[in-house]
Amino acid sequence: MAQTITLRDKKKARTKLTLLQAGLELIGEGTFRTVLVEDICQRAEVSKVTFFKFFPQKEDMLVYFMSVWQAERFVELADSPKRGWAAVRYIFSKVAEQSQKQPGIMLSLISFLAEQSMHPWIPELSPAEMQLLFPEREDTEEIVQYSLHDLFSRAMKEAQEDGELAECLSVEEGVVLVFTTFYGSYLSAHLCQSPDYMAFYDMHIKPLQR
Asked: 162 vs 83, 86, 87, 110, 209, CA distance in Å?
């Protein structure tokens, strides 16, 4: 049975998602560090008090972005026959696609993670947020349980089952290297001033394939 969501919860979820969208639009080719909270609030038409209720620290918005982004990828792959390396390449292609609109978001995320002592905990999206993001889905409880690590783990298990994972690699090693590629290839393309992020992703996963 679908969970009943109050109007208050829907309003909160809509405001939080609107703030995220405003932040993404303002990043553009810049970095999240240079985006002002005041500008985000002005674009989203909410007060700073409201902003900090949702995001006690401005950087919390990057973590929220990760929550939404990985949920979107799970849904897209759940509706797709892609598996193994095809699933990994699809995830990478979505990063490359977003780089055309907001090239600064991935660099901001890399910079943020570099300052952390460990990978931040990614909070689950609320039922109201899930309903707004995926109004046609009924399996939202399953979606929020999956992280990017889970998606990569599943893909590496599939690659191994299909005989497409390099013989010298275990599934766990494959996951670590795919994560390294996820962030590292993007940074390499940026440092090489190449707009073809997907080419860099393909180059880095080629040695991992059989």
From this structure: 9, 12, 13, 32, 11
What are the residue boundaries of the structural domains of the chain, listed by start? 58-208
- Rounded to the nearest integer, the mean pLDDT of the chain is 92
Cα 97 from Cα 103, distance rounded (Å): 9
Q: Would the pTM count as exceeding 0.85?
A: yes
- What tokens does 141 get? 């409880």
- Using alpha carbons, select from 99, 75, 126 the residue that is nearest to residue 183: 99
Domain 58-208 has CATH 1.10.3120: no
- Segment 117-126, tens digit of pLDDT: 777 778 889 9
Q: Distance between CA 142 and CA 119 in Å, rounded?
A: 22
- Given a cut of 60, whether residue 1 has pLDDT beyond it is no
The yes-or-no verdict on residue 33 having pLDDT over 50 is yes
